[in-house]
Each structure stands twice: as C-alpha cells, then as structure tokens.
Amino acid sequence: MGDGTSRGSRRRVLRATGWGSAVVLAGCVSVGEDTSQAGGESSVDRPADWCFDRLDDTVPDVEANATSIDGVERKPEGELASKEEASYQCGPADGDHCGTCTYYIDDRDGDAVGACTEVAGEIRSSDWCALWAPREEIQDE
Ligand code: SF4
C-alpha cells in the first residue's frame, strides 16, 4: 500500500498520459460486448455505441460535483473528453469496466448510471473507455 504522495503522482501520470493512450487505442477497441462480465447483458454482438442514446449528455449536479470512487475531482465541463474521443464502448473490455475505474463517479441519484471525472455525460458502470485506469484498491492488491 503506497502513501498518498505516490498515489497522487501515479494519478497525475495516468491523467497526463490518458488522452494519448485513448488516441493510440482508438483503432483497437473491441466492438463486440464481453457479456461474461459486468452488466449481465445479452451476448448479441452489437455496435460499440449501441447504448449512447440511453445516456444523457448532461450529468445531474449531485454527480457533476462529486469526486470519483478514488477521490479524483471531475474536470470542468469544457475539458471533459467526449465518448468518441475516449473510445467509449457499451460494455466491458477484457473484464475492465467503469465500475472498476479510478475515475468512475458512482450513481448518486438512483437512476443506475453514474458519471466520470474525465468523460462527458452519463456513464454506465458496465461500460469501458480507453482512459480506464484501475481503482486504487485494485492497484494495491
Ligand atoms: S473507463 Fe469509464 S470511468 Fe474510467 S475513464 Fe473511461 S468512462 Fe470514465
């Protein structure tokens, strides 16, 4: 288990490199949905963006003003990546999903979707994007 300083440094590095990673990974994100992981959705192969029209572009204040699971503050609205820029996909990737990401903001208003400190709009815990980084409790295992 590291101290707060090293976690902060690691997070800064992840945030600094995340956008570059998203660009690099944009061409290799799986389009199919891994149905064996979070979400429990059907095994039908669907487009990576099939859920976009179910997610509002705006996030309720209770989530917009919240910090992530690991205490990361949400970026200002104008600095958030779009889902397309982050290569967001509807469903997990290799078992990784928003619910295990350090940037995920849990649902705070009971609608079963949360938000993200890095990506705009509502975010489902069962989805994934190229900025994914493990929650601290996973890093420390
Ligand atoms: S994986 Fe999900 S929670 Fe993590 S940065 Fe991407 S959209 Fe945000």
From TrEMBL:
Q: Name one Pfam family in it.
A: HIPIP
Q: Show the PROSITE patterns listed in the entry.
A: HIPIP (PS51373), PROKAR_LIPOPROTEIN (PS51257), TAT (PS51318)
For the keyword Cell membrane, the answer is no
**Keyword line:** 4Fe-4S, Electron transport, Iron, Iron-sulfur, Metal-binding, Transport
Q: Which segments carry the region annotation Disordered?
A: 66-89
Q: Does the keyword Transcription regulation apply?
A: no
Q: Where does the record place Basic and acidic residues bias?
A: 71-86
What is an example of a GO molecular function annotated in this UniProt entry?
A: electron transfer activity
- Residue ranges annotated for the High potential iron-sulfur proteins family profile domain, each copy included: 69-137
Q: Name one GO biological process term.
A: aerobic electron transport chain
Q: Which residues form a coiled coil?
A: none
User: Which protein is depicted?
Assistant: High potential iron-sulfur proteins family profile domain-containing protein
Please report the organism this UniProt entry assigns to the protein. Haloterrigena turkmenica (strain ATCC 51198 / DSM 5511 / JCM 9101 / NCIMB 13204 / VKM B-1734 / 4k) (Halococcus turkmenicus)
